[in-house]
Please model this.
Amino acid sequence: MSNHAVSFRQYDEGFSYLCIHRPSSWPVGHAIKVFFMASSDGPDISNGYSIAHISRIVKDAARTWESYANINFTFVDHQESSDVRILLELIPGSRGIEGKLLIGRYSERQSKNEPTMIFEIGSLAEHTDVRSTALHEWGHSLGMIHEHMSPACSIKWNEEAVLAICGGDRRRACVDYFQVAESETRHSDFDPKSIMIYNIPFRLMKNHVETMRGNDLSDIDKAWAGKFYPSAPAVCQTENPIDQHSFDELSKNFRCSAAICEPQGRQCDRCYEAMIARIQGADTATEY
Model:
């Protein structure tokens, strides 16, 4: 980073990036509070785009997900109340764009003084590339992992080649490329056009599986965003005592007997709050 020294804590599960990571998903209907941190000074990108314009592109990408998922990105003015904190970095003379973030609600573990999502944007980057990257990163913020990591993906990896582009770092290869366990996810059939996929060169595969990521959400992205975050309410209607809002080791979520608190990655509001208390190291029994 050029002007802002930050570090992402290395939560193994938080970085295990259409396929959703069960423990990372938010409650249905949740308002995710987003704050833009002070960004680095730097040149405008091509065609006179400024940091303010990039911010609008990033916000517009969030609104696109809201059109299909029952979730709300609320942009706030106070950093201390935020769930997601965005830092924009402009890189002179580059056409590249890179996003880094803590997946889903693992952003709750990061210090309120540090970003949970970082965009490094080349000063020569194109509008469509900025928006495509923003859509991809917002998908991660909703708990979605890379599509090529889905258990439904048939890619057989050339592990030696993947490790080579990851600098020999097997953990990074597992975070960015290799498939995750079925038990950790909900997923559609493999979607080679998903905004959540990389355009993967054949040299990284033992078989040839075409990946065709475009600049917008695919039809399957749109349909499954609504399945992951459906329109059904998430408010708990039960009078369950706290001991019935118990932690489920398999799903890594709190669960109760409420009809809406199902084992497919959804939680009622009370179980979600108990989960956040656990993440923050609080005593969950004192929450109610």
In short: The first helix runs from residue 51 to 66.
